[in-house]
Amino acid sequence: MFENIKIKFKEKADPNQAYMLKKYMRGQFEFYGLHSPIRRNCYHDFLKQEKRKKEIDWQLLNEAWQDKYRESQYFVCDYLIAMQKYLTYDDMPKIEQFVRSKQWWDTIDSLIKPIGKLGLRDEKVNTLMLKWSQDSDLWVRRVAIEHQLLRKDKMNSELLKQILINNLDSNEFFINKAIGWALRDYSKTNPNWVKNFIEQNKDHLASLSIKEGSKYL
Known about the structure:
The chain is about 65% helix and about 0% strand. With about 220 residues, the chain is an all-alpha fold. Helix 6 (about 70-80) runs parallel beside helix 8 (about 105-120). The protein starts with a helix and ends with a helix.
């Protein structure tokens, strides 16, 4: 089935755009050169069919993830977002394989969405994210930091606090940026909490995290 999607990708391929995207991603991935609306249109009808099945096709996702073109990994992310209500905690090891391979901010910042939604349904995800927040892999830690984005009043602030504390004094740009985003996002709902957290931990927060986190304060 994924071959049919690849055929559509190839039909819409834009070599000039592919070159620019590869350059933007520091040469790490090959691209067909598809803008998001065009890419998603290639599998829009397919995802509608999958939703009716109410069952996740992990063999399909693994096949797509192994493909060398980055749009194929984007398809996996979009699939999981579309099918997120059918995910269970037992699926986390399968998602973790995607988190730990072909890593860059683009797929990581998409995979947080189905993980975050699952966390609202199953508290075991909280324990796992706390564990991930201390992982040696910075991208795994970034997932833990960001997975509660956009939760607003559903934010587990105690979990957020502990995850952020586990990542203080970091020299990693992508960690410090994620901390800032998490604080900035939550500041729209609970500015006093964010203000207090920054004040209490200002000596251990990167200036980037403080700048991003304070944007709406």
